[in-house]
Specification:
Chains A, B: This is FCD domain-containing protein. The structure is a homodimer. Chain A has about 220 residues and is mainly alpha-helical. Chain A contains 10 helices and 3 strands. The first copy, chain A, is globular and about 55 Å long. Chain A binds a DNA duplex (30 and 30 nucleotides) through helix 4.
Chain lengths: ~220, ~220
DNA sequence: AATGACAATATTGTTGACGATATTGTTAAA
DNA sequence: TTTAACAATATCGTCAACAATATTGTCATT
């Protein structure tokens, strides 16, 4: 039994576990922006103590995911359209840099793994399995950043991504978007394999910008319900 | 009396105040990497309650500024050479983008303010006042990002900067570095005033990279003591 | 029925006490 | 003198009770 499991067994989830749980709820839009996070509810659903729940709130507040008001507790913070734009611009720059670095610096194993992930994702389009695609996609982006030797950037991008991913879950991934993403990935992989860092960076920027556009369209569609 | 002051008066500093205080201590290297942050000490020095101090720790941990180990509490987290490299690369990209956006989007007042700040900083070189220079410099960078309409990026860059600024304080700012920075700023201002966003972005990247080199030199010098 | 004052409840903020763990100091044996 | 075992202290993690505030419900008045 590892440490985490041991801790879990003797005294319920840790504050980090609870924070993760909340993050997941937000990403899957079981918790929507503006919604209040009542301590007792979280306690019931996670089994954590009140103290740990509050610690989790603090961490999430520092990440900008929730907002804490005096005597009103924590609530899910939504991002405005302009904030989303800035976040995606930042991502485009940072991931673009990673694509460039990966082209130059990555080891042989990471290159192979990245190619294999891309292939698996292509298969997901045919078999129409958006959840698997979503998971592989996260893996792919993470591997690209870490393989480029930029773990700090990876962490940063993760933080940037959380507050806007509440729409990109499960059934929302339609066939068109999947095909577009696969096409983008192929361009990036080609550039990497050709050893062309400039092209890899440019292609990655385009890819992230595509994601932004797709999200904007989605939000407009939801808004016009 | 504003809200913050009122709160302060009736019940001591808030957890955000304490977090700020700790951040300042770290930046001014009164707290150095590896050093443990003993709760009682912080309580004595800030007047906050233990609960609030711990909340502050959680926030700082989420920002990556301190590390929390079980039963050993919080300690200041130092950045490795490679982490510093990644942080500066991210800054170069993000601030470069802001310089570009400022050139295109900034209002007339912000442009004027930015130019005035740059002038004041030039005077600081002659009068040899590094603390004032440092303050104005922060102002200048902040204004550039906010004037570009990228407040989220500004916040992000602030977080990126904190863990590495412990050396760039007070007397470390030598005349050479000041002159170099002023020269960089002048190039950036020229590009902005000429309405050349590409040049502004490029000049800003160079400027940040200069800052990185300077810091590296400093660390090597300190290390060889 | 609509509105405002007031009470009841729900929720959060704060404090203090207690147990758990790490760190330091002490002593005795090799 | 050095080291290992043990005790003492310092520090941290957790919890439960209480205080402060917000929210909701009720009732009388218009």
């Amino acid at each position: 039994m590892n440490d985490a499991a041991a801790t879990l067994a003797r005294s319920g989830p840790t504050s980090a576990n609870i924070a993760d749980w909340i993050r997941t709820q937000i990403r899957s839009s079981r918790l929507v922006p503006g919604q209040r996070l009542v301590e007792v509810d979280i306690i019931r659903q996670t089994g954590g103590s009140r103290f740990k729940v509050r610690e989790a709130f603090q961490r999430l507040a520092a990440e900008g995911l929730v907002e804490i008001e005096e005597f009103r507790g924590a609530s899910v913070r939504g991002a405005s359209e302009d904030e989303v734009r800035q976040l995606y611009q930042a991502r485009a720059l940072l991931e673009g840099m990673c694509a460039r670095d990966f082209t130059v610096r990555a080891g042989a194993e990471d290159r192979k793994k990245l190619a294999r992930l891309a292939l698996e994702m292509e298969e997901c389009v045919d078999s129409n399995s958006p959840e698997k695609f979503s998971r592989l996609n996260s893996e792919w982006h993470k591997l690209l950043m870490r393989g480029a030797g930029n773990a700090v950037i990876e962490d940063l991008v993760k933080r940037l991504s959380t507050p806007v991913h509440h729409l990109l879950f499960g059934t929302f991934y339609k066939g068109d978007r999947l095909r577009e993403a696969v096409e983008d990935h192929r361009l990036i992989m080609d550039a990497i394999e050709a050893g062309d860092p400039e092209a890899a960076e440019a292609a990655m920027r385009v890819h992230v910008e595509h994601g932004h556009r797709f999200l904007s369209k989605l939000e407009r569609a939801v808004h016009n319900d």
